[in-house]
Amino acid sequence: MPSRSRRATLATVAASAGVSIATVSKVLNGRSDVAPQTRTLVQSLLRQHDYVAPSPRRGESIPPCTVEVQFDDDFNAYSTEIIQGLVTAGAELGVGVVVSIRKQVPRSTAWARDLVAAGRRALIAVTCGQLTTRQLTALSRARLPLVVIDPLNLPHADVTSVGSTNFAGGLAATQHLLALGHRRIAYIGGPATAACNQARLHGYRAAMEAEGVPVPPGYTRSGHFRYQDGLDNGTAVLDLPEPPTAIFVGCDETALGVMEAARARGLRIPGDLSIVGFDDTQVAQIASPQLTTVRQPLREMGGVALRTALRLAAGEKIDSHHVELATELVVRGSTAPVPGSA
């Protein structure tokens, strides 16, 4: 047993473990390039030797454990919920969260090495686009773990991602409108090729087909998850010869645009038109009337992503490369029985 009269050093622990001082230092700093068995042995010996890291000298600071969170578009209500979840989880775990926006694909592979040099332990991407092979290769070479939150396009099989049950959410939203007696139900979503949009659209179609309700031409439209897209697509759908009595919208922000398009035509919500959104961000609660929506657990997704990224940075194995958290329908004031049904 080690003597308690002398303070244990990295050299002491390294000699006991039969490894280099650099390896012990990597374990202490949570580096991922240490074999799991070696990591377990070193951690055990650190406890056995009662190792305590020396206090920093005056003027020196201990670099905190930080994780980079990158968005590829401007912040909105959705982004705010994700960031809140990440920051809250970071505070609980003692981990710094650095948020940035990168709208363009880096031309140089040095950006990943720069993140490591800045002390980042992992990268969490909240992205609207497909991760390129160049990006993935740069991160792999830099040994920087990557976790993608709510990917619009399912990433490579080896890329870890956190999302929600989009199909089940689309199914629940449409079933709610059908239960209210609506049969002319439209869907306004995001990018046509986006995996999350396709899942929500498929959930909508599955509910309609199960009830034997046809989807007329022009009743499904795609765009981006933005207010202006809701305004434009809502206008187009409501101007159809036989407009819908209800619309399922793939995003709360887009739903606000649809609501404005309806008001511009003198339609009452929900008296003349019922609307269901998706996400359950703050805009759903401040809308007038408050928006019935599918709650996507965005804050929880941020927390799961951060904890998963830290596990990967520590060299731990994870059970699945893709995790989906459950969605939930939240009924508020923007939906009502079909006009004239009661």
Automatic annotation (TrEMBL):
* Taxonomic path: Bacteria, Bacillati, Actinomycetota, Actinomycetes, Streptosporangiales
Q: Which PROSITE patterns match?
A: HTH_LACI_2
**Nuclease recorded as keyword:** no
Where the record annotates domain HTH lacI-type, the positions are 8-62
Give the originating organism. Answer: Nonomuraea purpurea
Q: Which GO terms describe its molecular function?
A: DNA binding
State the UniProt keywords alphabetically.
Answer: DNA-binding, Transcription, Transcription regulation
| Protein name, UniProt field | LacI family DNA-binding transcriptional regulator
> Pfam families, per this entry?
LacI, Peripla_BP_3
